[in-house]
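Re: beginner question about structure tokens

> Can someone show what the tokenized structure looks like for a real chain? I only ever see the sequence side.

Sure, here's an example I had lying around. Input first:
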Amino acid sequence: MTSMEPPQQPEPDGLRSLDELAARLGELRTWAGLSVREVHRRVARARRARGVPEEPSYDTVHRCFRLGRTRLNADLLAEIAQVLGAEGARWRRAHARVVGDATEAAVVTVLDAPPADLPAFTGRRGELATLLAARAPAVSVIEGMAGVGKTTLAVHAAHRLRRLRRVDTVLWVDLRGYAPGMAPADPAAVLDGFLRLLGMSPDRIRLLDLPGRAREFRARLAGRRALIGLDNAISAEQVHPLLPGPDAPACPALVTTRRRITGLPEARRLPLEAFTPAESMELLRRAMGNGPVDDPETAGRIAASVGHLPLALGVVAGRISRGGSGWTLTDHLERLNDHRARLTVDDGVELALRLSYEQLDPPHRRLFRLLALHPGPTVDAYAAAALAGDDLATARDGLDALFRASLLRQPDLGRYEFHDLVHVYAASRSHDEDPARARRAALSRLLDHHRYAASLAMDHFAPHERRRRPSAGTSGTPAPELAGWEEATAWLNAERAGLIATAVHAAGHPETHDRPDHCGHMSAILSRYLGIGGHYREAEALHAHGARTSSDPGTRGWALAGLGTTRWRLGRYPETADALRQALAAFRGAGDLAGQGWALGNLGHVHRHLGEVDAARTCFEDAGAVALALVRGGVEAAPRGVMYEPLGRYPETYTAAEEAVTMGKQVLALARAFGDRVSEANVLVSLGAVHREAGNRPEALEHLLHALEIMRETGNRFAEVDVLVELGATLREFNAPLKARQRCEEAAALAARLCDRYQQARAHDGIAHCHALLDDPEAARTHWQEAHRLFTELGAPEADDVAARAARCAGRRDSPQRGREGSEADPPVASGSC
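And the corresponding structure tokens:
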């Protein structure tokens, strides 16, 4: 007879919902053979042993095994898994993936340079020579266990290859295959970042699926001398779309992974083992000042005590270098052995980390623990100050101390990150030593800092929308001082991954802080930046989480509004209408008339685009009624000063231009009474359009020029493009094509700087009309072709119209270009179309 194999421990990998997570936890309890009552007792006993005063009730523990949960405490889940004999951190990571997988996978930071190299790289001479060989394969996969130095070797090799092969482009990304509490990076999101760095517009990228992005990526690498770094890969499926392909032989790729990746036949495997004794001795010698080692036998025993693992050796070397003249190598070895006796598991990394951690000053130990609470991939001094509640100088000192102790890495100037193993250790120390209320307070300070700092940045990025965004709140910790649009944009780009990861974490873990509406507020704050920057997947996830978790109906309404806007840009029009209808219901629940008008007007626009004329007319009529209600209610009815006025853009709403003008004057008076310059300018633009449609061109021009003046005063650059295009159309009807073309060229240039490709296409359409009026069909066709290209990439319906105009010019011969050299008083031209 053969004995039956014991059942395998249930694992939390690959789960997609909280119900699946709870069911798998129940399987783990069955496997462990414990009752829920016994699980509760053991969790409570473990907390008392750690000195944690808060103990969960029996019912709280019991509910973790029930289906139908809308939220689950990640810390308690990890504790339960731990007492059931599993790895708590692994279950915490599974929870994080279930809660925020879509967002985390889509939020990827792509770098245009490898991370900073170690100033004194040690060992790995044979492996390095293999990577640098002239005939090395295009793809090298560096494999090895955690802490063996894969990333360190890849980074050092990248810096050497960059010089040796005169690389002109670097594309580097952390694929987060094993990052605690974070989902592995989505290769489609990585290609989004790669293609942006290679010059492709976000709106073209969003139209491509994963295979399409991979093809475009490889095509753009042809002829370049690029270097691709794919750190912490988890599978061939994640890596394969990111490789350069056979048409880019001058583009080496360095891949690091903890496991053997099959399915990459073109790649060369480079397994890494722990350091040799000689390499360990070299590292320790450098830690002691590059002099001879007085006691090589003791140094060898120190290296052996941590398994010659580079990560652990680096931490020990950092401790030796800071130990002072009173410490001998024997002292360090004795301390290692003393601590080893207390370990339940003989783990050299944990031993090295514990010793280095315990040597830190108490404030630095606390900072080390609290940094593990940050859900984002990297942290700067401002976020560190917020987590610890310190001033900026103290936070910088603490980060520097942790970096010198080899407990933090510095991938870029001023930014710090954990190695995955160090992160797990720091999180466990925080869980053991910091009361839950202290962790909640630290995360709440971080949320306050993010909301405040992001609001300050958006005040520079889109100052005209300051009144529309929620209050910045207060922050008791320092925030960066930004000067102007460029610095604000750079800060938002650098912090985007952390801002979104933290907001989504807050949405999924409301029990860990006291800011239940934080994700919704960040949705409203970052909406314009994410939309203009083409960060559509991040925007959709952030707005969806904000809409799902916000308790305030007004906040939920604006999150749904952002979700609708994002889906419109993605070309998903029925889903856009659904989000806007939900936003309208939320605004009605909040009594927000301004929000209702905004939702109705935009919903009408969606219906028009879908050809649903009656539904569109109803929405515009309702939006007009809301605008009248705002007028009657006065300032009190518009708490944020956000108004939608469906006037000249939708003439089918009104029976006569006079009615539209009367309506516009009423809304304009309210905007001025409220001091809302943004709405004032918007109403002036619509009044200008009404007058232009009615043939009152001097009045149209007056209103549009006044609107342009206000937009420039308020910094509303995005709307400035719109009014420039409207000015161009009005001037064309004044038979002033040269002035009209000048305004449209201003619009095209500004739209290009703002990366607003829709308005850029409208501007080129306007320029083409002007060239047609000036009898220059060749130039007209060129600009219509550019407008068609842009509209097509955006998936906009205007593409067919401009294609037809370009086609009408295709067979026309050049004629005398009347008006090009003449005055604007030349006789009117009959048509502005070829």
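Each token stands for a local structural state, so reading them left to right follows the chain. Strands lie at 110-111, 139-143, 169-174, 226-233, 253-257, 267-271, 409-412, 415-417.
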